[in-house]
Design goal:
The structure holds 2 protein chains of 2 kinds. Chain A is an all-beta fold. Chain A is built from no helices and 11 strands. Chain A is globular, with a radius of gyration of 13 Å. The N and C termini of chain A lie far apart (about 35 Å). Chain B is an all-beta fold. In chain B, β3 and β4 form a beta hairpin. The radius of gyration of chain B is 13 Å and the shape is globular. Chain B starts with 8 loop residues before the first strand and ends with a strand. Classes of the chains: A mainly beta, B mainly beta. Chains A and B meet through β4, β5, β9 and β10 of A and β4 of B.
Amino acid sequence: KAGVTQTPRYLIKTRGQQVTLSCSPISGHRSVSWYQQTPGQGLQFLFEYFSETQRNKGNFPGRFSGRQFSNSRSEMNVSTLELGDSALYLCASSLDNSYNEQFFGPGTRLTVL
Amino acid sequence: DAKTTQPTSMDCAEGRAANLPCNHSTISGNEYVYWYRQIHSQGPQYIIHGLKNNETNEMASLIITEDRKSSTLILPHATLRDTAVYYCIVKSSNDYKLSFGAGTTVTVRA
């Protein structure tokens, strides 16, 4: 079974730009969660989508948004990029209502200059 | 408050078993023990989880003490590819959010 895939793997943007990251979960998984990971803050939860609906949300500004499609693929968007948005963005998928096993993708490394 | 306490680092010889301890003295009755690892600059990888019984899968074994206040992750035959940061997490199964502490940096040496 294919794992979680994320594209692109690396991105370099400048302040003020916007970016869209994509995540394809494991086949059959309907929950997709997004995390931001930085050396200083560690792993921070952004939001979770299930059946095209945002089910849970972390404490991030409105510049961070996401969506999920009917095939469970998910995208997250960051607008008006700031230097502090430089991070590894991780996507994790899990089965319907079970968070016992969350499977992460390789991440997208975003660098904001 | 940190829910788990792990050693900062440990070394292990290739081919030997690696035993990673974790203390979680304030664990609640409905909370599970989860282990993840993260190889440098890659996404975290789920390893195993358990409630109170010992668990084993193709990657590792999880031994939880009877009082559930501590546990040990066992990698039976460590390889160089097992070099990673290992995170012990305590949470309930319906808690959607993962949060990693500092973890244990495991270095497997040839």
